[in-house]
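Re: beginner question about structure tokens

> Can someone show what the tokenized structure looks like for a real chain? I only ever see the sequence side.

Sure, here's an example I had lying around. Input first:
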Amino acid sequence: MNVVMSEQLSSVVRPWDLVAEGYAETGATVLAPFAAHALEYVTISSESEIVDVAAGTGLLSIAAAELGARVQAIDLSQSMIDQLVAAAAEHPTITAQVGDGQALPYEDNRFDAGFSLFGLMFFPDRPEGFAELCRVLRPGATAVVAAWAPAAESSLMRALFGALTAADPTATLPQPDARSLENPRVFDAEMRAAGFLDVRIEQHTVEVCYPDATALWESTTRSSAPLAVVRDEVGEEEWQRRSTAAIEHLTVTYRPNTPLRTTALFGIGTAPS
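And the corresponding structure tokens:
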């Protein structure tokens, strides 16, 4: 599918194009447990047809297909879809395409469940993203949307940004944003405004371990879209200087195989009759 993107959408998609390869190679360390948890909110069978919006490299799509579902996966980034198609080569029940989650190319009332794992949270028009997800679900179908909790609540993010600050003193831990989906009240209100019923917002925390400081740094930075943009902007020589300083910092502050925690909010709602 060819998508004509506005300048705004082009700026949105660029970070994900840059990070797609690293996301596919290292993102599963953190994201796969969240994908598995998202699927626990629905009953999947061979009769199920689901939509995975902002599907990225397809962790949730593939996990759903392995449970028997037929999956329509869509993402704005061609590079992400390329990675998804390669990873899903053995799963013929997955159909992947490039497209905008704010204007889904599916008919009304089509899907038995809908998901967006850390994708819809970045949409320029989140209300439209929620409304589109609601539109394509059958009456009574379940939607599951995941968004990150505040970075300050994540020991993984604190470790990463401590290392970033050692390499670049201007780097700071992202501050809480009460207007984003990290605010449960905003999350709840936006889902309800889109038409979802029985909305609830739940937390889920995952622990990850790394064998050493280098693995922690490489895994987290290669799967971070914002940091992929930084790397592209500062150039490889400067990025390698920062990486060396960051790894030296983590070698002192991170004990190998120590669990680090990161938390997501899950918004669960039901499509109306």
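Each token stands for a local structural state, so reading them left to right follows the chain. Strands lie at 49-53, 70-75, 94-98, 111-117, 137-148, 197-208, 260-270.
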